[in-house]
Fold:
Amino acid sequence: MSTQLAQVLDRTFGHPRGLLGRIGGAVMARGNAATERHVVEVAGLAPDETVLVLGPGPGIGLAAAAERASLAIAVDPSEEMLEQCRQRCASAVADGTVRLRLGSAEDTGQETGSVDVVLSVNSVQLWEDRPAAYAELLRVLRPGGRLVLSAHEKWLPVPRHELARELAAAGFTDLQTWVWDPPGRAAARAAQLRAHAPR
Structure:
């Protein structure tokens, strides 16, 4: 891949900004919507839980999570994506049930043991330091808290079983992996993982 193409893809999807970021957000909102909602279903959010959504993109999954949990916190390295979340979830932001924060999987800015569930769709491949991210997610999850990850299978940084081994080595328990085919002819197969923080 050429350096120029890599920069365009990063500005569109990796760290969206400017016009390319707005285009990327529109593409993500359309292409990832079914998977975002599916991950929220898989997580089984309860009304008294706090959920951390990593890399929420334009906020489709964030909005779905906010409908079920008492508090949904979005952490994204892109101001453009946080602004799209702010617009999509305007009433929830106003009433304090959605919070937006600039950050990353490696540095969420959350307090230790402050969230029940962590959700991530199509962002694990962008984490700069996966071991550091795993440590951060274990830190912020309450004992027994749940992590649900999903990514286009072709974009995984390593095969899903290897990703599960990395999570287990980091201290996560009760790991499960599977694939899910979103509806629609053009939809890309998703590799998904669920794990728990130790009790």
